[in-house]
Structures are given as C-alpha cells and as structure tokens.
Design goal:
The protein is of the alpha/beta class. It is built from eleven helices and 20 strands. It folds into three domains: about 30 residues; about 350 residues, Alkaline Phosphatase, subunit A (3-Layer(aba) Sandwich), CATH 3.40.720; about 55 residues, no CATH class. The strands form six sheets. Strands 1, 6, 7, 8, 9, 10, 14, 15 and 18 form a nine-stranded mixed sheet that branches. It has a three-stranded antiparallel sheet with strand order 2-3-12, with no helix packed on it. The protein has a two-stranded antiparallel sheet with strand order 4-5.
Length: about 500
C-alpha cells in the first residue's frame, strides 16, 4: 500500500467534503445569477437596442425622440487638415510670427522638435453676414460655412497618429474593432430606401484613408450594418446582368430564387442568421437595378456639373467633384448615412492628404483646390433642393496641427490638443462658434470638447439617446460614446 502524502496545514479532501463544497459553490453561483438578473432588470430603462427583423434588417426604424435629421453627410478631410489655415483665426499668431511659443522650449511632438510660431500663409477675411473669419485656402466653402455652420473650435483627440486618430473620430475608440458612427446609425434607424445600402462610404479618387475600413466598419455589430464603399470613378463592379440573359429572363430567375429562399426559410423558422443572409443577397440583387442609375451622373445638367467642377481637366479635381455629386444623389435617394472622404493615405507626406509636415503651402494649395469648389457646390446644392432642412452635415478631420513650424521644415506637426469641426443643417444653429483654442491655436481652453461629445450630438439630432443606444458585446453594454460624451446643446437650433 502506497503511503499517503501528508503536509502540515493541508486538509485531505474526502467525498463528503467535496460534495458539501460543491453545493456551497453552486448556491453562490445561483445567488449571483439572481442578483445579476435584478441588476439587468433595473438597468433595462437605461439601455436600448432596436427591434430588428432579420429578414429586413434595414427597414426604417424610429429612435428614442423626435429627430431633427433624417440623414447624415460626413465630409472627412483625411490627414489632419490644419484648423489654423482654414477656420480658426488667431490674430496673436500673426502678431507673434517668428517668435518662440511661450512655454514650449522643450516641446517634442509627433515628428520631433518645434520651431517658431508661424502664421498661416493664407489670409483670413470676414465672410458672409456673420463676419466669421475664414482663410483664402477655402474661400467658397468658408463663405458658405460662415453663415450656415456651427463651428466647434475646442475639439480634442486622444492620439497624435493618423490611424488611431481616424479610428477615434469614426468609432469613438483609438483601437480597431469598434463599430463606426455610420454603422451605429444604420443599426439604430435602418434606412428609407430598401434598394440602396443604408450606409455608403465614398473614398477619395486617390484611394482610401489610412485607417481604411475601420472608418466604415461594423466592428462587433452585425456585418450587415457596415458601410458599402464605392465612388463615382469605381462603382461596384459586376452589377450588370450577363449578356446571355434578357431582362425578362433575369427577372424570372430572381423571382424563382426569392420563392425558393422563402420556402427554405419556412423550413427553419426562427433562424435569424439564415434570414439575414437571404436579406443580404436580396439587397445585392436590388442594387443591380439601383446602383447603375444613382452613379450615372450624365443626367445632371451641364451648369451643375460646371458648378461642382465635374469636368475639370485635372482628374483628381474632377473625381472628387463627381464624388460630391454622387453624395448628393445618395442622400436624395434616402441613404441614411454618407461618409465622403477628401484625402487618401499615400507614401510621401501630404501627397494624397492634408498631412502638411514639410511644405504646407505647396501641399495645401493642391488640396484646397480639390476640396473647395466641389464641397461648396455640394452644400449649395443640398440647400437649393431643401435637403439641408433634414440632413445633418459634419465637416471633420482626425486632429489639428501645431501653431509652430517643425524645426528645419515648412510645415506643421500633428496636434490633438485642439482643432475644429463644424456642423450644419438639420437642428443646428447657423453662423455661430462654440469653444476656443488658446491665443496661438495650440490647445483647447474654452468649453473643451471630445469626439464623444460630437457623436452624442450627432445621435441626438437623429433622435437617439447616446447613453441608451447600446449593443451587448463581451459582457458589456457597448456605446458609440463609450462611458463619456454630452450633447452640445449650445449649438442646437
């Protein structure tokens, strides 16, 4: 017989003690479960998830409150467009041009040491009835925004790197894997046109932004709510029916598939994944009919094409102008959320976007020409058609830039400590400014805002309470605004 191991202070576990301990543990688990149930019941009023029919996941839905906006247009300037060279006028920066920035002797930012304070190479002038000072870099867009937009001059970020900065602006988190603001919107509200995607992302004609799909991804939300990407130069391919099929044969085939799908679904009642898959295929089929028409810009009158610059000899200028026209047509057709990108990630600083490190004026002269006319034409077009009354427009970028030039360069480094975003359209007070950076435009100092505040305000204008719009994931009720954010009611009409 083998000797029994005996250690001081160690109780040997017999069958009776094992069963008793197991019973105690199970009782604790049961009690914890009951308490958790009580907690969830108490919290039910604080969370809200939309009721979604998996066979029609994009059917229009109501939010928590009456909505001022029915749809959203986000114009995202990728690469960190400088607030100091566009919309944030700083007379003291002009007066102190060439001097060291007080208190910044040892300041090291994203790319290194800073040089002297440097005024904008672009003149700021008062525009519109509001007299808002905006720069000559974007004279047409600035003139429109001066009287129609609410400027948020005290926005702050959480990263000074483009990828995480874009993630934060689009999803509320610097890390990857979180749903974008467009995905949250389509998840909550669906869309008004069942023949088009609820959420469309329109990349710049030069390519995609640095964080790419994270800007329009669904994260942990169902994949059906992610953005569909196409632009006026590269529409979704393979939508045309095969040449071997007539229109009548194509229609008969789709009708047969629909009947077979419905019969298959009846065999598996309650299978939400199957219903969702069928709905996705059916939307794809409907898009074969709808997308070619919406991306066909030849029906637009020549005077309007000229206003946008859609036939400019510069292919990038014309390409972005056509993207702006496409954005208006999508909004007009009832797409819930359109994210329009100006600027794309490219090797070489500032080549394809607003990342003006080395030769800011040379780079911005190019980017300003691409953005200004087309974006201003889009705003005027939305206004003429009455779409601005129930469309929320958001102009944004991932962070700002420094009031100094980098040492040894003629450009500005990254600056998440203060930058500008503006909103216009449905539910927004026009021609006002809220918040401020310091006298040089370096740091937000008055009514400081975060991207969570921006998202909370956007959701509010869509009739959604950012604290209640949730999705249960990995043990947490997740929100677009995380555990932060407030509605900026000061800018609401």
């Amino acid at each position: 017989m083998e000797p029994r191991l005996s250690l001081p202070g160690l109780r040997m576990l017999d069958r009776r003690r094992f069963l008793g301990d197991a019973l105690t543990g199970l009782s604790g688990i049961a009690a914890a479960s009951l308490l958790a149930g009580e907690r969830v019941s108490a919290d039910d009023a604080a969370v809200w998830s939309p009721t979604i029919d998996p066979s029609a996941p994009h059917a229009p839905r109501s939010g928590h409150d009456r909505a001022a906006a029915r749809r959203v247009l986000v114009l995202f300037c990728s690469g960190a467009c400088s607030h100091l060279d566009t919309f944030d006028y700083k007379p003291e920066l002009i007066r102190r041009h060439g001097e060291p920035m007080p208190g910044a002797d040892s300041l090291i930012t994203f790319q290194g040491e800073q040089g002297a304070l440097t005024k904008s190479p672009y003149r700021f002038v008062p525009r519109g009835e509001s007299g808002k000072y905006t720069s000559d870099l974007l004279p047409q867009l600035g003139a429109w925004a001066a009287d129609h937009a609410a400027f948020l001059h005290s926005m702050t970020g959480k990263s000074n790197t483009h990828g995480p900065g874009e993630n934060y602006l689009s999803t509320g988190f610097t890390l990857e894997g979180f749903p974008s603001m467009g995905a949250w919107t389509s998840y909550a509200l669906g869309t008004e046109n069942q023949d088009l995607p609820a959420f469309v992302a329109i990349p710049d004609p030069r390519g995609v932004p640095q964080s790419a799909i994270n800007n329009w991804g669904a994260g942990f939300l169902p994949a059906t709510f992610q953005g569909t990407t196409f632009n006026a130069q590269q529409p979704i391919r393979n939508l045309a029916r095969p040449e071997s099929l007539t229109a009548e044969q194509d229609l008969a085939t789709r009708q047969l598939i629909e009947r077979m799908n419905r019969r298959h679904l009846e065999r598996y009642p309650g299978d939400r994944q199957l219903a969702a898959r069928i709905a996705a295929y059916e939307l794809a089929a409907r898009m074969q009919q709808s997308i070619p028409d919406v991306v066909d810009l030849t029906s637009e009158p020549q005077w309007l094409r000229d206003e946008y610059g859609a036939d400019d000899p510069d292919p990038v200028v014309a390409g972005f102008a056509r993207n702006c026209l496409l954005a208006r047509r999508l909004l007009e057709e009832g797409v819930r959320f359109v994210q329009l990108f100006n600027g794309a990630y490219a090797m070489g600083e500032g080549v394809g976007n607003w990342d003006g490190h080395k030769t800011l004026q040379e780079q911005y002269d190019r980017h300003g020409r691409i953005l200004d006319r087309a974006a201003a034409a889009l705003m005027n077009d939305l206004q003429r058609r009455g779409l601005l009354e129930d469309t929320l427009v958001v102009w944004c970028t991932e962070f700002g830039r420094m009031p100094t030039f980098q040492k040894g360069a003629s450009g500005r480094d990254h600056n998440p400590s203060g930058f500008t975003v503006w909103l216009a359209g449905a539910g927004v007070r026009p021609g006002i400014a809220y918040g401020a950076t310091d006298e040089f435009g370096y740091r937000a100092v008055e009514n400081v805002l975060t991207v969570h505040d921006l998202h909370a305000t956007m959701l509010h204008l869509l009739g959604l309470d950012h604290e209640r719009l949730t999705y249960y994931h990995n043990g947490l009720q997740r929100r677009l605004t995380d555990v932060e954010g407030r509605v900026v009611r000061e800018i609401l009409a």
